[in-house]
Design a protein that fits this description.
Layout (H helix, E strand, L loop, with lengths): L1 E6 L3 H17 L4 E6 L2 H8 L6 E5 L7 H10 L5 E6 L15 E4 L3 H19 L2 E5 L5 E5 L3 E7 L2 E6 L4 E3 L7 H8 L4 E5 L2 E4 L3 E5 L2 E4 L5 E3 L5 H15 L3
Parallel strand pairs: 1-2, 1-3, 3-4, 4-5
Antiparallel strand pairs: 6-7, 8-9, 8-12, 9-10, 11-12, 13-14, 14-15
Length: 244
């Protein structure tokens, strides 16, 4: 079950679009619960208490525009997938800075929404991949790949950081960073430094000699010699996922 929110000041449009989106997710065998909002201030308050997997934002709304809402979400570290819906195609470039997943044009509503949901459902399968990791004292942990922000090493100890900012140490003498890189590169991880292997989906920005992460707000060092290759890998992965 995924939680979805839609915010648009046109009540009739919301009712029709909610039904269509629900039907399209059902075609992909994905259950969803959709909450709709016409009041942007009330919506913002609810988002502080409710965790959504996907948010549809109309851009042209009173009080707070979709762009302003997206800015507040990102400033607060909210990494929810955002889809902008608008009749004004010229806004598409302004949405880039908020890492929008798609820009749905109201004059191409059905085709754009079908493509977006098809891509989103495909990405859900990737994010649900589970790996088994060996820990100390002969323990093992089954962990969703999407819930691993990055691996890092301190001398001979290797840890991974979860979505809850918790560092968990892997079994000693079982893994090396090179082995983890070989295992996780195909799962979307990038070796940004000899001591760091980062999940590309957690990258907010690559700037200078730092990689800035979403949600956990950590900064990871970027090796000068790896900088160009890291940027190329990140851009390739973004293109493959289809994010704007």
């Amino acid at each position: 079950m995924i939680r979805i929110a839609m915010c648009d000041d046109e009540t009739m449009f919301l009712q029709t679009y909610q039904k269509k989106v629900s039907e399209l997710f059902q075609e992909h065998n994905v259950d969803c619960k959709i909450d709709t909002y016409t009041d942007t201030v009330r919506f913002l308050e609810h988002c502080e208490k409710t965790s959504y997997d996907l948010i549809f934002l109309d851009i042209d709304m009173p009080e707070l525009s979709g762009i302003q809402l997206a800015s507040k979400f990102r400033d607060n570290g909210l990494n929810t997938t955002l889809v902008f819906v608008s009749s004004h195609d010229d806004f598409v470039f302004e949405t880039f800075r908020y890492n929008a997943y798609r820009f749905v044009r109201k004059n191409k509503l059905l085709s754009d929404t079908q493509e977006m949901i098809s891509s989103f459902c495909a990405s859900l399968k990737t994010k649900s991949v589970i790996v088994r990791l060996d820990l100390d004292q002969q323990r093992t942990l089954e962990q969703k790949v999407s819930g691993i922000a990055y691996f890092y090493s301190i001398r001979h100890d290797i840890y991974f950081v979860t979505a809850q900012k918790k560092s968990i140490r892997l079994a000693m003498h079982t893994y090396t960073m090179n082995e983890l890189e070989r295992q996780f590169t195909e799962k979307g991880f990038i070796r940004v430094h000899r001591s760091y292997l980062v999940n590309y989906a957690w990258i907010l920005q690559i700037k200078g000699d730092q990689v800035y992460l979403k949600n956990c707000q950590d900064k990871i060092p970027l090796s000068r010699g790896r900088s160009e290759e890291v940027k190329l890998q990140y851009q390739r992965l973004i293109r493959e996922e289809g994010v704007l």
